Amino acid sequence: MTAIWDWAYALEILPILAKASILTVQVTLAGFALALVLGLAFAVGRMAGPVWLRSATSAAVEFVRSTPLLIQIFVLYYMMPGMGLSLSAMSTGVLALGLHYGAYCAEVYRSGLENVPRGQWEASIALNLSPWTTFKDIVLPQAIPPVVPALGNYLIALFKETPLLSAIAVLELMQTAKILGSESFQYTEPITLVGAFFLLFSLLSAVLIRRLERRLGARAGARR
């Protein structure tokens, strides 16, 4: 009877998958950093500025949220070179993840910004503070802490979406596992190890997010 699990093979491929996991983490962090920046820009664009800007930003956010990430990856990877912009597969993957999750983060930011009392803006105007100073030093510090858990959920979700980048030949964890399986015709070990890596990183991310949430909550309480 053939063994279901080959420990020798699992230990052999573990360093290869561990190396691939570094690339997966890099793509995740870069994509999420881009999503945080774009999400805030989208949120501000939907709430402030002229009507055309609010309408255009809202349309872009809804379009991105309403289309599959895999389609967006293909569009960016295969259509951008025709428009004169050629990026590597990894850069395209980071851009796709950042745009996609930036649209979702925009709604999270918007809810946080809308929960800041209007009186904060009025008091800043009375103190003759510039809009930028008011937003950066008064409004944003109050809007961010309550939405950290939601943003953290998107970080974990984004991490679990990185296998989609295998469609454009980014050698992340899942693509590496597929290659190993095709070479040895043993898929149980590499796929199971990939699942273990994703579980480990997701749990670690959840712990770090909770710590950040508590730290921000403590700071907010100290300011009061």
From TrEMBL:
Its membrane topology: Multi-pass membrane protein
BP GO annotations: amino acid transport
Protein name: Ectoine/hydroxyectoine ABC transporter permease subunit EhuD
Transmembrane annotation, as ranges: 20-44, 191-209
The keyword Amino-acid biosynthesis belongs to this UniProt entry's keyword annotation: no
Superkingdom of origin: Bacteria
Keyword Transmembrane: yes
Primary site of residence: membrane
UniProt keyword terms in alphabetical order: Amino-acid transport, Cell membrane, Membrane, Transmembrane, Transmembrane helix, Transport
Any GO molecular function: transmembrane transporter activity
GO CC annotations, alphabetized: ATP-binding cassette (ABC) transporter complex
Family: Belongs to the binding-protein-dependent transport system permease family. HisMQ subfamily.
Annotated compartments: Cell inner membrane; Cell membrane
SUPFAM superfamilies per the UniProt record, alphabetical: MetI-like (SSF161098)
Domain named ABC transmembrane type-1: residues: 21-209
Gene: ehuD
